[in-house]
Amino acid sequence: GSLLASAVSDPTLDISRLLRGHANSVDHSDPGAATAAWITVSGIAIASTSVPVDVGGEVIGQLTMASNISDQMLKSISETTGAKIVLHDGRRILRLTPGLKVTEQQLSLRPTRAEGRNGPARADPSVLELADASYFMGPKPLKLGSGEETPLISMLIPADEYLSTSRDFVTDSILRNTLT
Predict the structure, then answer these.
(1) Mean of the pLDDT values across residues 89-116?
(2) Predicted model pTM
(3) From CA 112, how far away is CA 173, in angstroms rounded?
(4) For the segment 48-72, what is each residue's pLDDT rounded down to a tens digit?
(5) d(C-alpha 160, C-alpha 129), whole Å
């Protein structure tokens, strides 16, 4: 389709790339259905929604609305999941939960092979130790769609309480085994 109208947009945002990036989710949806996608355009993480424009029973186009993924949206996801959220493109961080201090280098320290105690299909999470806290991180980030413009999400699950409980349990078990 072609762009019929637009609203004020970020001058660094390439609208044609936005529409191409969102078109992938439209192509993979049911005909005539509304679609939603998270995409990366010009280094900006964007949430977009598209609805078909139906005139007299004929779909004449798509109305696509998009906005930056905000700190408030990430905060809401973080509060719902209990995890800190990092959106990235595999090379650089696009957005992260407000207050989280993590660098691209720290995120890249994850294991490159998805193998653990449970075999290749069920890799163990890695522990990311930051200045303020430790977090569990999955063996690889999640992709939020099927297109190449789709951002990746890494969910950092607070680990300090679990790790301190585990250390106490192990210390207690060693002490008990020594005494018996």
Answers:
(1) 74
(2) 0.64
(3) 33
(4) 888 888 888 888 877 878 888 888 8
(5) 9
